[in-house]
Structures are given as structure tokens and as C-alpha cells.
Amino acid sequence: MMSGKSWRWGRLVWLMLCAMLAVPVAWAHLMPSGQGAIRLVGDSAYVTVAVPVAALAGFDDNHDGLINAAEINAHRDMLSMQLNAMFELRSNGPHGPLGRVLFEDMLLSHPGPGTEQGQGEAEFALLRRYQWDGPVTAPYISVRMFHADATAGKRLALQVIRGDETELAVLTRERHAHQYFAGPWAVFQDFTRLGAEHILLGPDHLLFLLTVLVVGAGWRYWLAVVTSFTVAHSITLVASALGYVSAPSAVVEPLIAASIVLMALDNLWRGPASARHRPWLVFACGLLHGLGIATVLVEMGLSSGNRALSLFAFNVGVELGQVAFVSAVLALLVLVTRRLPAHWQPRLMRGGSAVAAATGAWWLVERIVA
């Protein structure tokens, strides 16, 4: 256990190391929520990671469900033991030697007005230096901090930096470990999975597709609009991820919600009569959705050693997820049109479009106000 003076010097040394090693750390925002970075230098690994308070226990002296600087200082040893059980960093693969912790500090991630008065934060930044007996090779990370109900569904986007190489992995409770720099096939698998998850867990993208398909104008129409959407969002996804175009999410996200409202109102106004011109409208909206889909890559970064491959794999995952969703929707629509009386089919389309318009309008207001 370090003395107060030693901890102050330790913080200063750590921040100087972070600056020299270009770890993405800033005093006002040490690490974005759900993210972390590891810089490998010789026989050491410098780690900065956002830790959710809900993953820890035994520190909450004032029973507010948060954590503050006084609680961190009072329970450092106990918190350190819990963090040791949550983070496992090895060299030379999953069976290689564990790193020794030479330095550790825990700092509030978002210090601001009121922090001095004891107001807590929902997470803090863990700073560590691990060391081995020789150079770090094939780093392997295992993270087990999503066990509590309050952290269910959370993710940790953890980037490892080795010289000019970087590699990103998204860790969850279900997939809590990753072998870094394991080769192109591992990168392809990870980014394909990430792309599929992003589209299948993105309700706005799925609702837009559902609103487009529910018009039920036939297979030629469905093929045309799905192709238009795919080509459009692929263009802006690639362009945004590579830095050729950019738009703030505060603008893109409300526009995506507005595209759902627009498509739903077009369903209610023109219905199947819009089939001839609908692909062009879907293409324009798809450009917006591509910018939204690219957000996850822009925020977390591509694997620098396999940049083109990781981008390609992410797009493949998006398309696979989209194909799975569209296939399920079309199968359901075909089944409904065969079993439902003809006079009920337009009512189904109008009812679904009205619900989509209301949902999109709610998201639009929510995203503008937020």
C-alpha cells in the first residue's frame, strides 16, 4: 500500500508515461465509457480502462450506489483484489505467464463540479502497469467484470497498441477473452461478428427496413429496395470509416429517426403506388444509415495491421445480419399474405406504418432533446 505522497508521485509518473506513449488518456475524460487501451512497450503493458462501479462491491460507504474519491482511497486494497480477479493479462497466449502489477491507481473518470463535495461517479479509470521477464508477445486478455445484473449487456472495447500496430476487440460477459495479433482469420471473425451484432441490435435500422418492406409490392420491389439500401449504406460506411466523410452523431441519429418517419408517412400516403420511385428514396436514406452504422468503427477504430480486412469483415457482418432479418421478415410477409384475407392486407400495412411513424417521431424528439 503506497503512502499519500507516493500515490501523488505515482499519478504524476503515470500521466507522463501516458502522454509519452500516446495512450488516449486526458485528465478531463480519462477513458470513454466502455472503452480501454493497452500500450505494449518491451516487457511492460500500460493499461487504462473504464471500470463500471456496478461490477464492484464493499466500497459504498454512503450507500448512494456510486463511488467517490474518498471511497476509492479508503478501500484501495479491497478494490485492487477485486480488480485482480476481473482482469487477467498474459503474454504468449492464453497459457502464457501472467503479468505482474507494478503500478496501480484508480481515478474518477469524469471529475467535475461537486466531486470535492463527495458526489460519486458511475465508473472510474483503472491505471495499471504490468511487467514480464521478457518482451510481451501474443498478448491475451480476459475480462470478467460483467457478472452483475447492473452490468448485463455491457461491452468493453479494448484496443491494444504495439508499435505501429493496433487491434481492437469488443469483450462481453459471453465473450470475455481475446487473443491479440492472432492473424487475419481471427480479425475477420471478430469484425464479422461485430458487424452482425451492430445491425441486429440496432432497432432504428431494423425498423426502417421493416417499414420499407411492409408495403408488400412483390419480389421485384423487395429486391430493388434492399439492394438500394445495401449499396447506399455500404458507400457511406466505408467512406466514413476511412475518414473521407464525417458527420456528428448528434446530426446523423435524428436524421435516421426522421427517415423512418418519412418512409412510414410515404406508406400511408401512397402505399404500393410508390414502388416505382421508392428505391431512390431508400438509397438516399441508406446513405444516412451508413453513417450511423459506421459510428462504432469511427469511435473504436479499425485494426491497423489489417485495416482493409477489418472494414471488409465488418461490412460482411452487417450484410449477413441484414440478410437474416430481411429473410425472416419476407417469409413472415409471404405467410401473412397467403393466410390473411385480401381486404385486411392494406390495413396491416397502414397499421404497421402508423406504429413506425409514431416510434420514429418519438426517437426523433428524444435524440434532438438529448
TrEMBL record:
Keywords assigned: Membrane, Transmembrane, Transmembrane helix
Q: Which residues form a coiled coil?
A: none
Source organism: Pseudoduganella rivuli
Q: What is this protein called?
A: HupE/UreJ family protein
Membrane-spanning parts: 251-269, 281-302, 308-336, 348-365
**PROSITE patterns, alphabetized:** EF_HAND_1
Report the InterPro entries cross-referenced here: EF_Hand_1_Ca_BS, Put_HupE_UreJ
Which Pfam families does the entry mention?
A: HupE_UreJ_2
Q: Which residues form the signal peptide?
A: none
